[in-house]
Write a structure and sequence with these properties.
Helix content: 25-40%
Largest sheet: 8 strands, mixed
Radius of gyration: 21 Å
Number of helices: 12
Strand content: 5-15%
Structural class: alpha/beta
Bound molecules: pyridoxal-5'-phosphate
Strand order of the largest sheet: 1-7-6-5-4-2-3-10
């Protein structure tokens, strides 16, 4: 009999311990500098982040949600405008559209990648449409060339919601390079996560950079001089943590990719589940490793079985946005056509533990338990 193991969903503490001296040194530097808000560490990290993406501007924000709506506002998108996205994403993608005052328009996802299906976008475009927000869901870049082509044909802006795929890439293009702006999130559980909340907006457009920089700081770039704005800054302590971690993100994502291959090889024979699908030549950085039960009725029993066996399995995201209670809360919202693939994804998804600090024994234990469940599944 296999010994019961506990496999957590996150590896934050393991990661901290692995590079503790680098993180602690940066935190100490900030503490001793006496500059904690919009100080030198934030400036340094913004430059490092922009350079990492091969882009010119990065603006740290309080979180990834704010980065999206700040970008929309900086582009002048708000009430009366429509923004197209898909409903099988974290709630914040749509929430940001609503915070900006715009209407969220939902189209279906691609059945394989779960990212927005570009073939569904054009039917949703109206004279009010101003932007598309593709989400690089689970760590896989959306089909950006197709999305950019549609956006150009209709004069639309594109904001990439890259909360989940930092250091990911497409076939021959990089995240951030085919859009007007790209948001990211640094909440603890992201591939590049701090010890709390944080976010950033990346752009090559100096106008968007300048506007977001001002909006995030009470509409101010000069002491005592303000226009309408908000308070949404990335604190210097978080910037220090992220600066230390940024140096490791590529190798950490490589490790995630290795664990994803180990899961996929181990689970290949399971008859009752579908495995995640990575586009050829894309760098899928597996923020989440999400399997789907072929029979939606199997999903909750599988999650229960894994939890009972010490494995912290979760679902991302089991209720699509348009099915949340009270939707759309008086906000502008439209679903265009069928969103059957998004709904199926919500009903069948199971996220397995995925972080670089997993061990082979832990991955193998998860595989063994799923195969055990699979054999008995009816
Ligand atoms: C796809 C997606 N968009 C936006 C966000 C919002 O980021 P934050 O939690 O930093 O506001 C998240 C994560 O939380 C996310 O996963």
């Amino acid at each position: 009999m296999q010994v019961m193991m506990q496999v957590g969903f996150y590896g934050h503490v393991r990661q901290y311990k692995n590079i503790q001296s680098e993180i602690d040194a940066n935190i100490r530097r900030v503490l001793e500098s006496g500059e904690y808000v919009q100080g030198p560490m934030l400036k340094q990290f913004e430059q490092e982040l922009a350079a990492f993406h091969g882009m010119t501007h990065a603006v740290g924000t309080g979180n990834g949600t704010d980065a999206i709506w700040l970008a929309l506002m900086a582009m002048g998108i708000g009430p009366g405008d429509e923004v197209i996205t898909h409903p099988n994403t974290f709630f914040a993608t749509a929430e940001a559209i609503w915070i900006a005052g715009a209407t969220a328009v939902f189209v279906d996802c691609d059945p394989k990648t779960k990212c927005i299906d570009p073939a569904k976008i054009e039917a949703a475009i109206t004279p009010q449409t101003k932007a598309i927000i593709p989400v690089h869901l689970y760590g896989q870049c959306a089909d950006m060339p197709a999305i950019r082509t549609i956006a150009d044909a209709h004069g639309l802006r594109v904001i990439e919601d890259n909360a989940q795929a930092i250091d990911g890439a497409g076939d021959g293009f990089r995240i951030g390079h085919l859009s007007d702006a790209t948001s990211t999130s640094f909440i603890a559980q992201k591939n590049l996560g701090t010890f709390g909340d944080g976010g950033a907006l990346l752009t090559n457009d100096p106008d968007i950079d300048g506007r977001v920089r001002k909006l995030r700081n009470h509409g101010s770039t000069k002491r005592n001089v303000h226009s309408f704005g908000f308070n949404s800054r990335l604190d210097d302590i978080h910037a220090g943590v992220l600066s230390a971690k940024l140096k490791h993100i590529h190798e950490w994502n490589d490790q995630r990719i290795q664990w994803s291959s180990r899961y996929s090889e181990g689970l290949r024979s399971a008859a009752n589940i579908d495995l995640p699908s990575a586009r050829p030549r894309y760098r899928h950085v597996f923020h989440l490793y999400v399997i789907e039960t072929k029979n939606t009725a199997h999903r909750d029993p599988l999650v229960d079985f894994l939890v009972q066996n010490g494995i912290d399995a979760k679902t991302h995201y089991s209720i699509p946005i348009h099915k949340q209670e009270g939707y759309p809360w008086g906000k502008g919202a439209r679903v265009v056509g069928t969103v059957a693939h998004a709904e199926r994804n919500a009903a069948s998804c199971v996220s397995l533990p995925m972080y670089p600090e997993l061990t082979a024994a832990e991955v193998d234990y998860v595989v063994a338990k799923i195969l055990e469940w699979d054999k008995a599944a009816k």
